[in-house]
Amino acid sequence: QAIEQEISVWSWTTDDSEPLLRQKLSFSDYYHVVKFNPSSKNQLVTTGAKSISYWNWDDLRLEHYIGVVSKTDLGNFSGRFVSTIFLPSTENCITATSDGYVVVWENKNDVPSKKSSNTFSTMKIATKVLRLVECGITSLIATSNDYLAIACDDGA
User: Fold this and answer.
1) Which tens digits make up the pLDDT trace of 110-128?
2) Helices (H), 15-113
3) Is 37 exposed, middle or buried (0-12, 13-18, 19+ CB in 10 A)?
4) pTM for this predicted structure
5) Which of 12, 13, 5, 71 minimizes the C-alpha distance to 33?
6) Cβ(87)–Cβ(101) under 8 Å?
């Protein structure tokens, strides 16, 4: 069953009472985290328990595509998706799971685009899955000196 949500982009430094862009969403997953790419203000990622959506926006539209993870290609992993972040100075991402895994997303330039108005110059594909810890990851951040910091559900 589809879950109705809405994503909006606001110009918070102005006195505008309306968002710059607003789009209603209807997905089978509830998106609970939104992160902007610090290296590119027009890119963001939303994370749901089972899916990741990558977004690109300009002054006129907000477009997205859903990242796909092939367990056949990358191996088996478990847990729900917790959060996704952009890695510093790149357009690559990492998604953490509730069972201690991370999925690495990298740009893929030769992915055929759909017959739509999708303006992504590159798409992200899951390229590897790594088990970082034996506990569930609850949060992750990239530090300014290019380290990855994680918090776990066991308090570590």
Assistant:
1) 544 443 444 555 688 899 9
2) 71-74
3) buried
4) 0.83
5) 5
6) no
